[in-house]
Amino acid sequence: METNSISTPGAYAILESWVDSIQFRRKGAKIMSKGNIIIKNASEIVTCSGFEAKKGKDMSELGIIEKGAVVVEDGIIKAVGPQTEILKEFNEEQYEVLDAKGKALLPGFVDSHTHYIWGGYRAEEFSWRLRGDDYMDIMNRGGGILSSVRQTKAATKEELYREGMKRLDSMLSFGVTTVEGKSGYGLDFDTEIKQLEVMHDTDRDHPIEVVKTYLGAHAVPKEYKGREDEMIDEIIKDVLPVVVERKLAEFCDVFCEKNVFSIEQSRRLLTKAKEMGLKVKLHADEIVPLGGAELAAELEAVSADHLLQASDEGIDQMAEKGVVATILPGTAFSLKEKYARAREMIDRGSAVALATDLNPGSCFSESIPLIFSLATLYMNVSTEEAITALTINGAAALDRADTIGSIDVGKKGDMILLEFESYKYIPYHIGVSTVEKVIKGGKLVYDKEGNPGVYR
Q1: Which of 138, 178, 202, 309 could bond 209 through an S-S bridge, CB–CB 3.0 to 4.6 Å?
Q2: Residue 137 has pLDDT above 90, yes or no
Q3: Three-state SS letters, the chain
Q4: Domains of the chain, start order
């Protein structure tokens, strides 16, 4: 079992040339990311105000403040409101001041479903899919999840760290301030632990906050075909105790799907995970209507994700139990599958979140602009609902709606400044990021105009 952190002299020596080439890595950025700042003259502040997930019609309520200001002290929001009122109470000389004239200010985006730590790529497999090869043909040629499993097993922690940091840098440029990362490309003890350890190191060294999820039941390796119950037993007996004892993850997830893990197997794993103190999520009803949404409601999971084939009953039960429905339109787009019924979910009173599902196979994209375009143009989700889904509801999908996801007093000072005066430019500028600056914990960590990619 690998337990060494990447914070060894040799590891940093390996990274140094990469650091210099992109001109902006500073060790300890996580520690340095808190600050005192006043953001003033914003054309509009989109607060997304709230401390829990927004359901149904409430997802359209953004809480706009025109000509507003925000004050952050020690990384926490101290005041937000009309500028004329806010600036009477605070001395600008005691803060860093950011003039947001002509710009819209929003909460930082929360990407609540990614697999950003993996080894190798599957570009050739993508070309096979483009010419019409089906999934089983690709699997028989060594493709699919198991291809990423082999490459992740072979990768060193330093390699995984380097690639993970690059991906986080890209996410930051899109305005992401909190991201969920899943393991699942190991399917064995050592590699799953290795992935979680690398996530810990990237969380420590990057401004983006990383929420870690153990997904050891992501696929069934060949040696466990027909012995899936034994695999679940071994995860419960051998891996979960280590994950919990070492605090390597906050959530446990499972791919609950036909020919992967059944409802009963998923129930058994997640029930044990909850008993051990982990929160639970599910990959549910992506390919067939197996009943994953109903299971998520039964277990009162924090979220259920994908949901392309979720039943009406499952959707209603999730809404009743407060389970966030996390929709991943980039995956459906990449696989040329129909989209999840986000419009119906919202109309039926669900709390819907949007996320990228960044991964090496079914959705190699961390593009927030793409997610906005797909949701608004092809899923009949309004711009306002999409913003809610990527802020306060994304936070709720990570059980963090009380600390991030909105511009409210007492929450972390995680915000993005757009290049334009209104949030309505986000989907309007199709496929292009409108994020100019990113503030994490009251500290400017990304500036497209002044110093692209710099965090300090």
Answers
A1: 178
A2: no
A3: CCCCCCCCHHHHHHHHHHHHHHCCCCCCHHHHCECCEEEEEEEEEECCCCCCCCCHHHHHCCCEEEEEEEEEECCEEEEEEEHHHHHHHCCHHHCEEEECECCEEEECEEECCCCCCCCCCCHHHHHHHHCCCCHHHHHHCCCCHHHHHHHHHHCCHHHHHHHHHHHHHHHHHCCEEEEEEECCCCCCHHHHHHHHHHHHHHHHHCCCEEEEEEEEECCCCHHHCCCHHHHHHHHHHHHHHHHHHCCCCCEEEEEECCCCECHHHHHHHHHHHHHCCCEEEEEECCCCCCCHHHHHHHHCCCEEEECCCCCHHHHHHHHHHCCEEEECHHHHHHHCCCCCCHHHHHHCCCCEEECCCCCCCCCCCCCHHHHHHHHHHHCCCCHHHHHHHCCHHHHHCCCCCCCCCCCCCCCECCEEEECCCCCCHHHHCCCCCCEEEEEECEEEEEECCCECCCCC
A4: 32-108+405-447 (2.30.40.10), 110-396 (3.20.20.140)
Confidence of residue 275 (pLDDT cuts 50, 70, 90): very high
